[in-house]
Amino acid sequence: MKKFLLLLLILPFLGNAQIILPTIPDLIICDDMDSNGQDGLRNIDIISHVSTVLTDYQQPNYFTEAYVTLVGAQTGLFGMIVSPTIFAAQNGQTLYIRVENPITGEFAVTQFNVIINAPAILTAPTPLAVCDNALPNDGITSFDLTQKNAAILGSNCTGCSVEYYEQNPKVVTTALPITNPAAYTNSSNPKTLYVRVTNANGCRSYTTLTIKVLPNPVINN
User: What is the spatial distance between Cα 168 and Cα 187, in angstroms, rounded to a whole number?
Assistant: First the structure.
């Protein structure tokens, strides 16, 4: 009885103004975080995406829930996403957000689309082999790595950029690209370099390039 009287006292101060939700922008990401960058599937954090837009509704007395269907979000009865911070989304999917004030019963539904762009499909290049162009035959020489750009990209990657690394940039986040790939001097022979390609959507794909120095013939006098 005391709880009921307390609720009656609180309600006039809360008011019954209808919840009006802002438009949530589409979530546009790249499919470059798993082993298959062409399947249009990726785990996303729904809460992180919507929380910056729904700042006015991040209050203890509001429920914010994500749904896979509009009817589910409108009724609140089915289709709720149980783990919205790690949700397996697919390209082109529409997700629905329900915000409800459980005290007044007011709620509103908004939505956003998930756009998962694919990285470029790369061709693993054949090794780049050059002759040792200086004495002695030490296996150290200068390479023009950009000679392999066309072979790596093929003909379907307009606007793509190619970077070469000594460390794997997919693993070593601090790895820096080779500053002058047109005149790169190897430090060991043979040597494996790492290639990162960024397409027009900002999505990245990776491959490797092996370089080797061929020794000059030694004349037997």
Answer: 16
